[in-house]
Amino acid sequence: MQNLGICHKCNQVVPARHETREGRVYLVKDCTECGATEALVSSDARRWQEKRDICGYDEEKAASCSLACTNCNHGKAPSLVFLDVTNRCNMNCPICLANVQAMGFRFDPPMAYFEKVFETLGRMKPRPKIQLFGGEPTVRNDLIDIVKLAKKHGLSARVVTNGIRLADEDYCKRLLATGTQLMFAFDGRDPEIYRKIRNSAASLDKKLAALENVRKHRRSKVTIMCCAGLGVNDDKMDDMIRFCHDGRDYIAALDLIPLVETWGPEGVDAGNTTIDDVERMIRDALPGVDFIPAGLLYQLENLQKTFNVGRLTFGGAHPNCESATALVSDGKAYRPASHYLKGSLTDAVRAAAALDLAMGKKFKTSVVARLFGRKGRQLVMGAALLGLVRRHVNFREVFGSNAAFKTVRVLWGLARGEKMKHLLRRHTQCHGILRIIVLPFEEPMNIESVRLVECPASFAYEHPETNDIRLMPVCAWPYNKDDILRATTQRYGVQTSESVAAPQSS
């Protein structure tokens, strides 16, 4: 099936193709009524193609779909499911299309709606991680009850928040007491950033106060979610990395969301930003950083199963979607992962993927693996990993003295099921890891069907006609959500003022 996209003018599904001009890649949509429209999808054509080559991706052989998402229940078993809980917000940033002002109606479904959604998701095997989305989830006074309801159905729910209400220490403490994790929107420490894209320079002080409350009352580490834009904070990423290192006791990851131009006539002082632009921002801030397509990690299937790593959130993503890297603390600052390798992170991960494929075949013939089950497979895999480590790891930087002995201790610890972070702190000079994901939320202008088929992340919703709970790839949601959520509002109504907090001044 041919790749498809959305016409900018009539909003219909039309054939789509890629064009490379002056080192950039455009998604061109050919509409019989409106002519050709296009969207920039990469500012670096070489890097765009390199990601495809790394993953062995051939678009001519890739599966496509109809983009008729409301007529389909996304067939890919998701590792991550988003759920809109409201479209009300206490900031209403002009770059956002998921609020009352942009959508033209209020979405605040009652608890019965969430009971139905969670009951369906709780029956999935394996159960996905849940992200409570908005709008701003914390404007609902019953958010804590929603989190607890998810837990009742065996679901782990993270809250995606701008953090403003968490400046109230009592509220922050009560929310974190549920055990929920946080995706905390924080774009940097310069007030000018918030003036440019959020019309609220004063919100920075509340965010910083909220983060201190989170640090004080957290039960798990948080993920910082940063909107990264050219002309906004591209020259502030070095400070963002320092901020994450200073807070490494409570910050586990940094998600960078490219700023896509969606704003209306009021305008935003920012430039349209691609995934490759964001990667370049981080490389400029910390030379030596090497990003890999996040979907490449999905090829480490045998490694994950053998050592019970669990499902990777973005495993299987399209090569030109999410990209990932890791920074490693030496106790003073974060360094690129490549600092501890003999070559690049890409080379090491590709070698690990090749090893993983070979191990899948070896497990079938190895006497040790067949006789001793999982423990046997761990021994066989551990021995193979030792060779991989010797070829790719810079032992002097990682272990210092007694490198061989410490390497064996780490691998033996992994085989016994110990956590990597504890092993690193005990036996190496690596004192912590910051995971970085470039996480695009595609808008209708740059949706393409070939990127949706294997998408590991979905939105959950109630179908307007059948009323059953369905899934839709994340990047197709902005194109469909208004009609769906309007129908849901008509079916359920909205919560009363007692259940939904009034917007707070930002």
Give a brief rundown of this model.
By secondary structure, this protein is α/β, with parallel strands linked by helices.
Please explain how this structure is put together:
There is one protein chain. This protein has 16 helices and 16 strands. With 506 residues, the protein is an alpha/beta fold. It has two domains: 270 residues, Aldolase class I (TIM Barrel, Alpha-Beta Barrel); 85 residues, no CATH class. The strands form two sheets. Strands 5, 6, 7, 8, 9, 10, 11, 12, 13, 14, 15 and 16 form a twelve-stranded mixed beta sheet that branches. A hairpin with a 3-residue loop joins strand 3 and strand 4. The relative contact order is 0.15. The mean pLDDT is 90.
Assembly type of the chains comes to single chain
Q: Report low-confidence residues grouped into runs of 5 or more.
A: none
| Major beta-sheet overview | 12 strands, mixed
Tell me the helix content: 25-40%
Keywords:
16 strands, 12-stranded mixed beta sheet, 4-stranded antiparallel beta sheet, single chain, 36% helix, TIM Barrel, 16 helices, 506 residues, alpha/beta
